Amino acid sequence: MRTVTYGAACSLDGFIAAADGSIDWLHFSRDVQDVMTKYWATVDAVLMGRKTWEVAQAMSGGGGGAKQKRAPSGRAKAKPKGPTTYVFSRTLGDISDGGAHLVSGDAGEFVRDLKGQPGKGICVMGGGELARSLLEADVIDEVGLNIHPILLGDGVPFFRDAGRRIPLELVECRTIDGGCVLATYRVRRG
Asked: Is residue 49 in a domain?
């Protein structure tokens, strides 16, 4: 069965963005780049809520994966295949990016079914609303944090109330460049 990981960079007080949505406090380094390169090689599906999708579209200039580049020979050069993106929303009618799939049904049921299909790992990306519903549905297997040495005081929380206690087991913990702490926890079941 595939592993579902919810992870993000966060402040020491548990926020993934400042109150105004800014992420200018994030520390990027070669360590972070190496961790992310290794992680993305293990993933072939990305799950996002509507708000995260809209931020990602704004940061990429919209449009997304449907564009093709021309090779010097004049033939179309296909964009390299990346992970399949699923956007969860009950309010969006469609999404303009041909490379993403809209999911408007029950998120827990969808992810439970996706976990049973062949493939690599599944990444839950972005804010806590989607993660909360997936933690409630008991389909998240791991939680990964890149904890930054800053207290934001307010902002977008990494976790929302999942309505129950969720026991975790530490899998990895180490410091990386910039005083950040990389920690990975496995959800303990049974």
From this structure: yes
Q: Residue 117 domain-assigned?
A: yes
Question: What are the distances in angstroms from CA 100 to CA 36, 51, 91, 115, 161?
Answer: 21, 15, 16, 18, 28
Q: What is the arithmetic mean of pLDDT over 162-175?
A: 94
Give me the domain span that covers residue 158.
4-59+80-187
The tally of domains found in the chain comes to 1
Check which CATH number belongs to the domain holding 178 and give it. Answer: 3.40.430.10
* pTM, two decimal places: 0.85
In a domain, 156, yes or no: yes
pLDDT tens by residue, 85-107: 999 998 888 887 667 899 999 99
The verdict on residue 74 lying in a domain is: no
Question: What is the chain's length?
Answer: 190
Among 182, 140, 186, smallest CA distance to 31 is for 182
